[in-house]
Amino acid sequence: MSDNYKAFRVHRALAVLYGVLALLLSSALFFPPMGYGQWGVLPVLVFFGLVAFVHGWTAMACRAGSEPGRKASIAIAVLMLCGFPIGTLIGAYLLSVTWKGWPAPQFTAS
Predict the structure, then answer these.
(1) What is the DSSP string of 45-71?
(2) Where are the transmembrane segments (predicted)?
């Protein structure tokens, strides 16, 4: 399995995870926690939605083997290193598959 596909799989899994968290968090709009207004959870919901979108975009760019996808993956991996212990492990893995570069994408005529 190529390194760009490994990075794609990690970012896809993280996009799904953050998407599910955002979906679960959106239920708080209909059943607000005690002491908070109905819209108090909206900033957190927007944050998780943006993180899910960024991971989804990076996953698609990594699958294509593009250089912007590799650079975005490296930037995300460096940020994830701060999330001890799980984020550190995921960030280190992403750095290991993205740091050395990817071969140029091969296009085939179909």
Answers:
(1) HHHHHHHHHHHHHHHHHHHHT-HHHHH
(2) 40-62, 74-95
Give the DSSP H or E segment for 13. Answer: helix 3-30
Cβ-contact 8, 56 below 8 angstroms: no
Please answer whether residues 90 and 10 qualify as being in contact, where contact means their C-beta atoms are separated by less than 8 angstroms: yes
Number of Cβ within a 10 Å radius of residue 77: 23
Q: 96 CB contacts (<8 Å, ≥6 apart)?
A: none
The number of C-alpha atoms within 13 Å of 107 and in the hemisphere containing its C-beta is: 2
pLDDT tens per residue across all 110 residues of the chain? 889 999 999 999 999 999 999 998 888 777 777 766 777 788 888 999 999 999 999 999 999 999 999 999 999 999 999 998 999 999 999 999 999 888 776 666 66
Residues 6 or more apart in contact with residue 108 via CB below 8 angstroms:
none
In the numeric block, which tokens belong to residue 12?
């896809």
Predicted TM-score of the model (pTM): 0.85
